[in-house]
Amino acid sequence: MLARHSTALLIAALAVLPAGTAQAGVRQPAVVSQKPVANTPHVLDGIVNAITLVGGTVVVGGDFTAVSDAGSDEQLPRQNLFAYDLRTGRVLRDFAPEVSAPVYALASGTDGTVYVGGSFDFPGRALVRLSLADGSTVDSFDAPAYGGDVSALVLQGDRLYVGGDFIQIGGTPRTALARLDAATGAVDPDFTITPGDPRGTTVKVYAMAATRDRLAIDGSFTTVDGLRRPQVALIDLVGNRVADWRTEAYAPSCMAVFPWYVRGLDFSPDGKFFVVVTTGGPAPRTSKLCDSAARFETYSRGNDIRPTWVNLTGGDSLYSVAVTNAAVYVGGHQRWLDNPKGSDNAGPGSVQRPGIGAIHPATGKALAWNPTRTRGIGVKAFLTTKSGLLVGSDTTKLGHEYHARIGMFPLP
């Protein structure tokens, strides 16, 4: 029992490390294949935290030091960031910036650039824009963040939304959330929405996703602009105000090691709903959303919004979620889905879905899709594209094959 509890505490500590921001849902006609493509490169150590796509180039961020092409023994030094060609899988040789500390968030930029957020100093604290041609900084973009890390990025048109636990960005006081000019990094004076009253020691925006008129955020906060919003909030981007949408679903506490326990979130392709995944510890036969995936309707209104459906793992964390019109993909170190009566065990009706699974968007029940992955800490990054589902984690076995820390399930 001692070894088991020690492992649980280690996983709990690692769970608060930021994950890559969920991208907006992509329309896909079907559930992806259970067999990964063969040509993705390998990340040889550490963990992948974030993935984005710039044109035909996949950019991968995390905490690692070396990568290799599929089928190659050549180790390529890469400090927490690298890129590869989506079609061929070949690692870009000229893009090798030395990022001094972990990358937690990425967003695709225009003109062959990528926005990179994390805990580094390169040279602006925690947030830079880089050229994919050679890894150099785009000097016209200047928005250093101070007092904390950048853990989430969302680009919408000419605006870049930035989340984290910083207290200043671009020389302007901003707590955990800011909107920037995507070209220059200038802080938008008209967007001053401020999360507050943390569940824990620090106010933090952990994950974000956006539609054309809504921004969803989650993290360690209980208010936004003074309005009660326990761990999850929607922001009306047309009016630059907190939306008339509040759920108390995440007000209860889970295990003490998780004072806040929301993790990934993502919108459906049409923006009508979004799904939140959590950690927290087993809470059988209760209304708590510990270790769960839950669907919420975007345009519901009021102070007691309840989830449309909930899928409980029965005691294992979910960190990432990606929503398409065919499936809600969830990843973590879970052993089961459909497990509301489980408490660190397989309850009645549960299905095995080690490390990765898919849920029906309408019913909330697990789909048959079950490729499996070595569980480890868990999936920290998903990216849906028109050709498939990219998966980033800390382990080397995906779909019963060797795919070190990065892999892709193609559409059939």
Read across the widest sheet, the strand sequence of neighbours is 17-18-21-22
Q: What is the class in the CATH system? A: Mainly Beta
Low-confidence stretches: 1-15
Question: How many structural domains does the protein architecture include?
Answer: 1
The coarse overall form would be: globular
The radius of gyration computed from the alpha-carbon positions, rounded to a whole number of angstroms, is 19 Å
Share in helix: under 10%
CATH-scheme architecture: 7 Propeller
Average pLDDT, rounded to a whole number, is 93
Count of DSSP-assigned helices: 1
CATH superfamily: YVTN repeat-like/Quinoprotein amine dehydrogenase
User: Mind summarizing the main beta sheet?
Assistant: 4 strands, antiparallel
How many β strands by DSSP? 36
Any idea of the CATH topology?
Methylamine Dehydrogenase, Chain H
Cα end-to-end separation: 44 Å
What is the percentage of strand-forming residues?
35-45%
The class by helix and strand makeup works out as mainly beta
